[in-house]
Amino acid sequence: MSDEKPAREPIGEDARIDALEARLKAAREREEERNRTTVKATSASEKAGNRALADLLGGVLGGAIVGYTVGWFFDINPWALLVGLFLGIIVAFRNIIRSSSSGPDKGADS
Predict the structure, then answer these.
(1) What is the pLDDT of residues 55-99, one digit of tens each?
(2) Phi, psi at 21, each rounded to 5°
(3) Does 53 have pLDDT greater than 90?
(4) Domain boundaries, the chain
(5) CA distances to 12, 15, 29, 48, 52 from 97, in Å
(6) How far, in whole angstroms, is CA 85 from its chain's centroid?
(7) Distance (Å, whole) CA 21 – CA 90
(8) Which of 78, 83, 110 is nearest to 94 (CA)?
């Protein structure tokens, strides 16, 4: 088996093949650069906005869940749900005002 010659002789180096390989390498590099994900740093205002949104959603959903649960136990469901939502909104606004008045360096630590 080792005495057999290959079906084709190996092709010698050609300038066209070298140019093609260089172009392929350049195209791959451009494609990698284009597909590379850029990590964007979040600013303080973005963090404050996300915090305010989380406070609002948490207050409303938390108040609704607690209000519904209390209403279910005591059979006063529509009124307990409304009171829970109202208290959840009040707590959410209190947290937003508290975090906005504490300044950017303290945040939620106060």
Answers:
(1) 999 999 999 999 999 999 999 989 999 999 999 999 999 999 998
(2) -65, -40
(3) yes
(4) 44-109
(5) 76, 70, 49, 11, 9
(6) 28
(7) 66
(8) 110
